[in-house]
Amino acid sequence: MAEVQEKGTISIHTENIFPIIKKFLYSDHEIFLRELVSNAVDATQKLRKLTSLGEYDGETGDVKIEVSFDKKKKTITVSDKGIGMTGEEIKKYINQIAFSGAAEFVEKFKDKTDAKDIIGKFGLGFYSSFMVADNVEIISRSYKVGADEGAKWVCDGSTAFELSATKKKTRGTDVILHINKDSEEFLDEWKLKGILEKYCKFLPVEIKFGTKEESIDDGVDADGKPKQKKITVDRIINNPAPLWIKAPADLKDEDYLNFYKELYPFSEDPLFWIHLNVDYPFNLTGVLYFPKVKNDFEMQKNKIQLYSRQVFITDEVKDVVPDFLMMLHGVLDSPDIPLNVSRSYLQSDASVKKISQHITKKVADKLAELFKKDRKDFEKKWDDINIFVKYGIISDEKFYDRAKDFALLKNVEGNYFTFDEYKEKVKASQTDKDSNVVFLYASDAGKQDSFIQAAKTKSYDVLLLDGILDNHFINTLEQKLEKVQIKRVDSETADKLIDKDEKMESVLSDEEKEQVKGVFEKAIANKNMTVTVESLSPEDLPVVITMSEFMRRMKDMSKMGGGGYSFMGTMPDNYNVAINGNHTIVQKILKAEEEQKTKLAKQAYDLALLSQNMLTGADLTNFIKRSVELVS
Hints:
Elements: E1 4-9, H1 17-25, H2 31-52, E2 65-70, E3 75-80, H3 87-109, E4 133-141, E5 148-155, E6 160-168, E7 172-179, H4 189-199, E8 207-220, E9 226-236, H5 253-263, E10 272-278, E11 284-290, E12 304-308, E13 311-314, E14 329-333, H6 343-348, H7 350-373, H8 375-395, H9 397-403, E15 408-410, E16 416-418, H10 419-426, E17 437-442, H11 449-457, E18 462-464, H12 470-480, E19 484-488, H13 494-497, H14 510-524, E20 529-534, E21 543-546, H15 549-559, E22 575-580, H16 584-591, H17 594-611, H18 617-631
Parallel strand pairs: 2-8, 12-14, 17-18, 17-19, 20-22
Antiparallel strand pairs: 1-6, 2-3, 3-7, 4-5, 4-7, 5-6, 8-9, 10-11, 11-14, 12-13, 15-16, 21-22
Helix pairs in contact: 7-8, 7-9, 8-9, 8-12, 14-17, 16-17, 17-18
């Protein structure tokens, strides 16, 4: 064993620094491996830089990093062939700089619960080793020194250390962790492999973790058939040159799709993607993919991965990516975001805000480009992407300004229109007496078919707005589009949906109207149903049940948890029952015997309920019996 040349203590104010670090980092203790491998990458990159500048003219050789473990000795070792350190540099970087950062960390954050989130800001990466190790050794040889000249540093997690000379054949640094009893779970191949693949999958230096067998061609056998043999090769667990660091001009669609499969092996192919490459006023690279999203708004968050210089940080990117784009997939990489960051840092940092705004702009620009380039193809994709666009329109003023020219409305016939195109299409027939253009829509084409058909007989067009976000989207459109009102097709009778002051002449006198109203109120016997007698077309239904646009919209917002509308959820449903005074059934009711009047009125009312799936239980049973009687 080499003679100890120096023993000492690191001069800091807090003696019990390691228990505090362990306490703060306990939930994230697997990051020790990320920190050590990141340090090894830095050392390797520095050697490459010195070589490129002509400041190191030795052989660089194979510079891959190796992570290994020994279950019997209970050690984990991270080895690199980077620039290495002399004994004096170990004292400087490990004993002074990093430990002074540790002391500052403890003083500032010992009473705060989120201290683990900002540990990287204090140069504590190396000292995360002591979360899992009782004892840590550093064996290093600098690129500056001759063969076999090395230095060895040993620390047991106290402020005491030993530094000695040692022989080391190769340039670089080995960090050896003697794992403590509580952390023996890390002495497992699959555990370590999983951590490396999570945090180090795209680091820019090859990382070796054990070996694996591969089959290679080995000529042909006696029958001329190809032979193969197995060989043992290094298991490289990372891709040092991921797609996002390459120039878009050098990439094909196939490259983007293959990278998507590398990120999300079991997902459908994405619809399209955006390659980000910004170097001013901040640094940002990455690729964002638009996946196919179903209309159930099951937001698959945590799908975008955030990196800093190809080191994985997190897949919780809420404050980096606008909320409406959280369903996108892909990778963002920015050296302007430190490795360990708190939520409060992300929320307040100016660079992060600029990155978020830039992503919004790039997404809008890409969608506008696709729309202009191939309108028909864009329409085919609309059902998959409209949830992104509508969410953006609802939540982001600047995105609305960009999206209003390519966002689409779809009618029940399956035709697509921009906002301006649709307003122009319907204004001739759907402008009310106050010069408002009225957009009619269905939220369930099947259930509302009778109302859709009634609207069509008036030459009205009906939009299909049946998405989970459409209640909010409709409110936003009404606020944004000048002189536009939006009404659900079953919120009024067809004549009243677009109030033009054009009234059909009634075949009933005022006295007969009151009589009909009284008969229906008696038959319905429900205080939540407001009965009116209207002069509609004889071809229209005898009874139409509607809920006012305001009441229905408030109740829908309440179901979705809309702020301020929660009280609506406790209120009973109030409906309008419009009796078509010009229908032949009403004439029949007026002429019928008293008992028969109520029965016919009830039958007509139940037919209206049935058409909207509102007739259930005993009421449905009675309706069937009554129908049989009337037919008989």
